[in-house]
Amino acid sequence: MKEAPPQPSPGRDVTASPWRRIRTRLSSIVTIAFLLRVGWIILGHTYRFKSADNNFSFGWEMGSIGAALASGHGFSNPFGVVTGPTAWEPPLYPALTAGVFLIFGIYTKASAFVLLTLNSAFSALTCIPIFRIAHRIFSQKVAVGSAWAWALLPNVMFWCTRAVWETSLSALLFALVFWLALTMEDREGLEPWIQFGLLWGIIALNSTSLLSFLPAAGLWAWYHRAKQGKRSIAGVVLAAAIFFACIAPWLIRNEREFGRFIFIRDNFGAELRLGNGPGADGTWMEYLHPTQDTFAMIQYQSMGELAYVHMRKQQAVEYIKQDYERFAVLCFKRFVYYWAGPPKATQPPWMSEAKNSLFLASSVLTFWGLGRALRQKRAGAGLLLWLILLYPAIYYFVFPSPRYRVPIEPIMTILCVFLVTEARWTSRASLPVQS
């Protein structure tokens, strides 16, 4: 997955000022990004989670499962109370959380600080694949601008400094596998296919929803290698074998715990119900979640996880079948809320509108930049299109959340910076020449 660094352009001033060298040095961007995030954690005291809700706000389901693992109860109890074995979440991030809990204490401020610092490291390291992707598809100027935008923008720092969740790790892994898919056509041997299978295996164990992009990434790599006359059958088989080797232990565990096949996680039916049912308006019906609804928690505990999820799925499917036109309207609303931000009551009221306006603006710039890249037939623009089409689609059927957009925000950042760079170049080119 190594790529030669971009070479200096002819005539470049090797005696440039230290700031100019720092400004274009990737290691400096990553370091500054990390320090800013850790500084935000310290100054904002974001490592102080409230304990009044049985510590559930400390990582929500991820934190609860991590606490159960660290306490010797196994992968269980996703809602902070004893409910037994679970497959509600993928295993990777809860396992990481449990490791931190074992060293620094369960639900301690030290553990919170370490976990948020790890998230910040994942976020800062994402500058590297952002730079590589932007440089390959567009230019060094776009690459540098995109990396700095990711490093400095406050909205990018929000999730990694405030939430104990897999979001920042997902963004890093997704950007890495996108870059790998782009560069597969240039590489020989089986090593890139080994990396491809391994990366997707890790992604599957971290955030299963990201797998929607796997077929497009694999087919893209195969097709562009085939255009150059490179064989890929052996590599594809090897990558698939490594991928299934990564997830097989977890699939076996699920089979043993629940007596049936479960592909990594089992909560899709419950999530479907949280977006589809009486009172649905295109947003997350949080009040139906077991942690918010006492009756739902009693049902979950008495029925068991699989039966509860199946019941919720049936309720959602029946609601959808009653009126497909209504469901289509809800899906359209969820599409809008995914890209424009869901409505949310805030104090002062204008705060939500301001946040959603910025959220929508970034989406509009993304679509605009993507369209321009496609019109210019940039190498890799087609893969950008497939990512934007495939990954968010599941949330149009369930419910949207700003957090669900984070894994593709590295790519969105690149497209936004590309568009701004193009606009600046066009405006300069249109200036009249002075005689």
Give your account of this protein's structure.
With 435 residues, this protein is mostly helical. α2 (26-44) packs parallel to α7 (140-152), α5 packs parallel to α9 (167-183) and α9 (167-183) packs antiparallel against α10. Helices cover 66% and strands 0% of the residues. The model is unreliable at 8-15 and 430-435 (pLDDT under 50). The longest helix is centred in the middle third of the chain and has 26 residues, at 233-258.
Keywords:
single chain, 435 residues, mainly alpha, 20 helices
Describe the structure concisely for a colleague.
Helix content is 66%, strand content 0%. The chain has 435 residues and is mainly α.
Give the topology, please:
Elements: H1 18-24, H2 26-44, H3 60-70, H4 92-104, H5 109-125, H6 127-137, H7 140-152, H8 154-162, H9 167-183, H10 191-206, H11 214-227, H12 233-258, H13 268-273, H14 294-303, H15 305-322, H16 324-340, H17 350-375, H18 381-390, H19 393-397, H20 409-429
Mean pLDDT, all residues: 93
The biggest beta sheet, please?
A: none
Distance between the termini: 50 Å
Structural class determined from secondary elements? mainly alpha
Strand residues, percent: under 5%
Shape estimate:
globular
- Which value, in Å, is the CA radius of gyration? 23 Å
Helix count equals 20
* Number of E strands: 0
